[in-house]
Amino acid sequence: MSRRHHLLPKTWLEGFAQNGGLTGRRRATGLDFPITVIKATVVSQFYSNPMPEQGEDGQEVERFLADEIEAPGGAALHAIRAGCWPLERGDESALIRLLAHQLARSRAFRKLGKHVEDHLLPLITASEITKYMGERVNQPLSPRDRKRVIESIMRNPPVLEGLLDPRRDLRRQLRTADQVEQELANRQMVLLRVDRPLLLLADGGVVVKQADGAFSPYPPVLPDDSELLAPLAPHLLLVLRDLNAMLTNSSRRRRPAGQTAEPWPCATTPSTGIRGTPGRRARPCWRSPRPCFPPPLRSP
Q1: Which domain holds residue 263?
Q2: Structurally, how many domains does the chain consist of?
Q3: Residue 189: C-alpha distances to residues 86, 167, 196, 230 (Å)
């Protein structure tokens, strides 16, 4: 098992490649550079277990991602690019699971975990120390003394690295992916296609668009009114939206008297079809010569 780990599955990168090659762009300089699919989004030992069990090589997470997540999810990506939409139930579940893991396996999410540790652990430690000191003197510290102790510890936080589980990044990644998968399973999938290539791909693969238009790569903050955007090819964009939030926002719009709204022709869910109507399936929205947007209101 290779110890050079991909942040994005090779099957995902292949959708943006030409003859096995990609064009990358460095964030710091903005300069483009050529790179192959094999070498793109590679980080050494990113999923390696620093405390492997006896007889293990520390690559259990990498094998799990390759066999259980990327292989079935890659089959779903190939099906979409080949023109299969809506997906079969098994492919749809595999794709949702892949998207959930992409949110949790990125470098941005790992940096978020480190950021939270750096800010919260000293505060938690200070709180525990003040509690311990109060128990030693058989009475709680005064608010003034408690504040002085906490401020002193926050200015000079103790080194806790040796006390923390070195596998916490991997544990957090897998646990968060499971949580996000449950949330995404209740969302609606919409596939948009454009006639010419417009989309770029970041090393995380997916991004969360908030209701105010801001973008964030960080799970598990997925508000009901947010959207998950996943470019699958330069001309294919997968959008996951919360159906209830979409209908709520739609109902708040003011409509002229005597006008009604039609269902979106490209909005489908795996089990209920258009807007919860059993048995109805929408036509593949990417076969339309124009993107699928809500149709205009019209008089009945």
Answers
A1: 251-287
A2: 1
A3: 9, 34, 22, 11
Instruction: Say if 160 falls within a structural domain.
Output: no
Structural domain includes residue 275: yes
- 188 phi/psi in degrees, rounded to 5: -95, 135
Confirm if 94 and 67 have CB atoms less than 8 A apart: no
3 state DSSP class of 18: strand
Does residue 287 have a pLDDT over 70? Answer: no
Comparing CA positions, the residue from 60, 39, 56 lying closest to residue 48 is: 60
- 32-38, Cβ contacts within 8 angstroms, sequence gap of 24 or more: 37/10, 37/13, 38/10
Residue 224 in domain? no
- The edge-to-edge listing of strands for the beta sheet with 227-233 is 187-193, 236-242, 227-233, 207-209, 215-216
**Residue of higher predicted confidence among 145 and 251:** 145
**Closest C-alpha to 98, from 215, 205, 2, 171:** 205
Q: What is the pLDDT of residues 62-93, one digit of tens each?
A: 999 999 999 999 999 999 999 999 999 999 99
Residue 10 lies in a domain: no
